[in-house]
Amino acid sequence: MAAPTYQLHHLCIFERHPRESMWNWLRWYHAIPAYYWEGIADLHHTGEGGVDYTFLACGAPFQMQLEAPPYQFEYERNWFAQHGSGINHVCWIVPNAYDTVEHLQSNGAAVAMEYEEFGGTYNGFVAIDPEGRWVEIMEYVNDFKTPDVEFRPVGHVGLQTLGAVQLCRDLDSQVEWYQDVLGLRTVLDARSDNDGLVYLADPAYPARRCVNVLATPGTDAEQAMMAEHGPVISSILYEAADVDQAWADAVAAGFGAISAPAPDDRIGVRTGYLREPSGNIVQVREPLAA
Of 43, 229, 239, 267, which one's alpha carbon is 20 to 30 angstroms from that of 155? Predict the structure, then answer.
């Protein structure tokens, strides 16, 4: 069987108070492309409950999904009890989710949630990559689809999401796994002696400008997150034409300041760090040189 095609779609944030926290995002140039709740018939209902999802986007196809408690499945509730509000998983779209179960398991992934069909909207399951980070695999069915947003930077600061940053214990082995198993290609490699970061992209790049960044901790905030949670999806990555104003606007919108934009020697551009309402790290950087 040929390897499935994986397309980066969104990350999921388990959020204790999503109704309150989303206002910070909306004040920072974001929009709500989709909102799903338990009152919608046949949408992701199980014997354990229904959904409460709010999707947020900013100038690019990569989105964030805020999910409110109580979470549907016991394995999700157990994760929340251990980690609290945080980025729970990265989601990938595939042509056939059921076929992907065997593909991932045969390549060293475990299954956290068995394959399930959700009311004629989408089917999927949740896997665990070799270092323990969650990977959601999903296929759309019928005419259901989470709407995309306009693919161009937002506002006078030119802000847009790029993807997620995943902290790794063994960077080289994880880059190899995501390349070989998910079919990602390298668009930026800033490694030295198994340290640094790598930008990976799916086959739809650059038409869909989304990246999956694998990295070792490069800041005190990342070191602390890694020490507390182990290998983790740590950050949401943004690009801005005016990185100083974008960072200042985020602080004005209620994000916590970690460090103002400063040169990042690993990639050669200025990068600022923030903390969004649920405690996750946000990175906003200048555009990379072509």
Answer: 267
